[in-house]
Amino acid sequence: MKILNIELRKMEGLAMIVVTNTIKVKKGHGEEVAERFEKTKGIEQSAGFVRMEVMLTEGLADYDELKVSTTWETKASFEDWVNSDSFRQAHAHKGNKQADGGKEKDAEGERIMLGSQLTTHRILVSRDAAAIS
Using an 8 Å Cβ cutoff, are 110 and 116 in contact? Predict the structure, then answer.
């Protein structure tokens, strides 16, 4: 039934999307940065928001990598959130900042955040786990 629902949404031009922010972080700081996502910042009340997952990539030697994926009912729902006060407040970046334009630094004065890339994906197929009796 889930696949049928996706087909109906596609015909109506309402494909669900997943937006993934891949964040490159100084080695050893991935879990610390991920903790920031534990506290709710209002995204849960956004119209069209389905879920958020924060994942830490395993096996990287030179840096830590987080993938923050949010699922939305429509691309318009995501765009509405990006243009909201809730989004601006969530991305106000409070914390351990020093000079250098407010970039976050570790105890040695080195930048923690090394870069990020945003990608958007249309959901074409989705399956849920089968019920176990």
Answer: no
In whole angstroms, what is the distance from residue 79 CA to residue 67 CA? Answer: 19
Q: Report d(CA 108, CA 20) in Å as an integer.
A: 30
CB of 118 closer than 8 Å to CB of 19? yes
* Tokens 């849920």, located at residue: 128
Write down the pTM of the prediction: 0.78
**Total Cβ atoms within 10 A of residue 69:** 16
- Which pair of structure tokens corresponds to residue 7? 């087909």
How far apart, in whole angstroms, are the C-alpha atoms of residue 71 and residue 48? 9
pLDDT in tens, 81-130: 999 988 888 877 655 443 344 467 666 778 899 999 999 999 988 888 88
Question: CA 82, 85, 90, 94: dihedral to nearest 10 degrees?
Answer: 130
Q: What share of the chain is helix, strand, coil (3-state, %, to 5)?
A: 25, 30, 45
CA distances from 43 to 21, 61, 80, 82, 129 (A): 15, 32, 11, 10, 26
